[in-house]
Design brief:
Layout lengths: L1 E2 L9 E8 L8 H11 L6 E7 L16 E8 L14 H7 L6 H15 L6 H11 L7 H6 L1 H11 L8 H24 L3 E6 L3 H14 L3 E5 L3 H11 L11 E2 L2 E5 H20 L2 E4 L2 H9 L7 E3 L6 H5 L12 E5 L8 H14 L4 E5 L6 H13 L6 E3 L5 H4 L5 E4 L8 H8 L4 E4 L4 H6 L3 H4 L5 E4 L4 H13 L1 H18 L2 H26 L1
Length: 527
């Protein structure tokens, strides 16, 4: 753990936010949402447990920390423990560790994993309690035991016998170890977490599992908000990773005919974390109905789900609007991180087509470039290879209010989204959108309800990974002033009617109040 600028483990907060790779150290839509939530509730106190990847990647907060944040701690899920090139534990060290008298904990561990693999979609809280006992407290399994005990070795070996014949053991071993090591960090957090009245994770995954364990240990209320669906995003990530070689792992599973056995193991692992998170949460909040359907399919009880859409500060963004008679700049702005899930390469290829129709067009990439340096370099090389150096610009992070007056279109080429805040911010600034058909983008452009649809289209929706259709839609809007103005008017009306952040903050404040007042009543009763 690295101490943060506001590390105070003895602090007591109304709300403890459990955040994986977002606020306050990483910029992005979810981080902006967390910032809105905290700053919109100055009457409540917050603590933050930030789960990051590796130590050294988060040097300083990307946002100023509000006064009502009383504690921040950084925890790292990945440790430098070797990797595929390191050999499995030497038998001499295993012998030194030996079998412990309480090795029945590993039997319980196996039973719980069997339940995860073959149990009902919605798991009983007793399963979460079982894992809490294994990972936190005085009788928990230590990470040293996971790595070097005979019990652990035998457990992994037994699980290996269930895998398809011929699967490389080295890859299997490191997959199991890679999955489980972060859970010991989470167990440490549970042991040491500061007191809070309510725990709130802004995803499932490791942060959601942390919330489930904290609820199990403390009995305090636990809620979840999901923007993108964590399990879906991890499926996309795992499908692209290079550390599971297909040629050494040719066994396919039912999830996808192109998916290897080990990739399937990882996906089932994240699905299991999600199901445990859902089972422990009192309520789960989502952004739109498409997310809601996926969460139900992933094991969330329908009765726990409530839709609370995103919202933006209309007054702030309104200041970025251009006069009605202003020229439409031939500039396409993509506000987002330069990472594969945003499919920046699709945008770059689309700009090649846009340039043929509009030689003076510009494509601006506005957002952090350091999250995936290899991908950023690949995008730069693509720009060079397509001779777009004077057309596509990497601008890094910029204030949206400074950028919107210079844009003709606010665009998005992602392969996965929830309900993008940047699209809503663009609407409030009077900028139509061209977006891929992911997440709630279609609802944002065409409307979510019959009444909403009557406002008209606020831009265009195109298929993912189709630069030609993307470019065609963009050029049509940029060259047809009447259509562009109708889209602008629909965008402004839609965001002002349905996506004001004051509504979002009020609804979450009501949720917090419900649990805080119940806690006060319980304390009075106890005293």
């Amino acid at each position: 753990m690295t101490e943060s600028p506001r590390y105070n483990p003895t602090a007591h907060a109304n709300i403890c936010l459990l955040l994986e790779g977002t606020y306050p150290y990483v910029r992005g839509g979810v981080s902006t949402w967390v910032k809105q939530l905290i700053e919109g509730m100055p009457d409540l106190t917050f603590s933050i447990i930030f789960l990051g990847a590796k130590e050294g990647e988060y040097e300083a907060p990307a946002y100023p920390i509000p006064d009502n944040v009383v504690h921040i701690e950084l925890r790292y899920l990945l440790k430098n423990t070797g990797g595929m090139d390191e050999k499995p534990p030497m038998m001499s060290r295993l012998k030194n560790m030996g079998k412990r008298k309480d090795s029945g904990r590993f039997d319980l561990n196996s039973q719980l994993h069997t339940t995860l693999a073959h149990g009902e979609k919605v798991l009983a809280e007793e399963v979460v309690e079982g894992f809490t006992g294994l990972l936190a407290g005085s009788k928990s399994i230590s990470e040293e035991e996971l790595h070097f005990s005979k019990d652990s070795w035998e457990t992994i070996r037994d699980k290996y016998t269930d895998a398809p014949a011929g699967l490389d053991f080295n890859h299997f071993f490191w997959s199991v170890r890679g999955m489980h090591s972060p859970l010991f960090t989470i167990g440490d957090v549970v042991d040491e977490a500061p007191a809070a009245d309510v725990y709130h994770s802004v995803s499932t995954g490791y942060a959601g599992f942390l919330g489930a364990m904290l609820h199990s240990k403390t009995g305090k209320p636990y809620i979840i908000s999901e923007h993108g669906i964590y399990t879906k995003e991890r499926e996309l990530d795992i499908a692209q990773v290079e550390w599971i070689p297909e040629e050494l792992d040719p066994f396919k599973v039912g999830l996808n005919e192109e998916m290897s056995y080990l990739r399937g193991v990882w996906i089932r692992f994240f699905n299991s974390l999600g199901r445990m998170s859902y089972s422990a949460a009192a309520e789960v909040f989502t952004l739109y109905n498409g997310n809601r359907k996926r969460q139900i399919a992933d094991g969330c009880p329908e009765s726990k789900l409530t839709i609370i859409p995103n919202g933006v500060n209309i007054d702030v963004m309104k200041a970025a609007r251009r006069p009605d008679d202003a020229e439409i700049p031939p500039v396409l702005g993509l506000i987002g991180r330069v990472v594969p899930i945003k499919d920046i390469k699709n945008f770059i290829r689309a700009m090649r087509v846009v340039k043929e129709a509009l030689p003076n067009a510009q494509g601006w990439l506005i957002g952090p470039q350091d999250e995936d340096e290899d991908y950023f370099e690949e995008c730069q090389l693509l720009v060079d290879s397509l001779d777009l150096r004077n057309t596509v610009k990497f601008l890094g992070f910029q204030k949206p209010t400074d950028m919107f007056p210079k844009l003709g279109l606010n665009v998005l080429t992602s392969v996965s989204e929830g309900q993008p805040l940047t699209t809503l911010e663009g609407y409030a600034a009077g900028i139509p959108a061209v977006a891929t058909n992911v997440g709630s983008c279609s609802e944002l452009v065409f409307g979510a309800t019959d009444e909403d649809k009557e406002l008209g289209a606020s831009g265009a929706i195109v298929p993912i990974s189709n630069p030609s259709l993307f470019a065609e839609a963009a050029v049509e809007l940029l060259t047809n002033r009447e259509k562009w103005c109708k889209a602008r008017d629909a965008a402004i009306k839609r965001v002002e009617t349905y996506y004001d952040d004051r509504d979002m903050i009020r609804r979450y404040h009501d949720v917090y109040d419900k649990y805080l007042q119940a806690a006060v009543a319980e304390n009075r009763k106890a005293s």
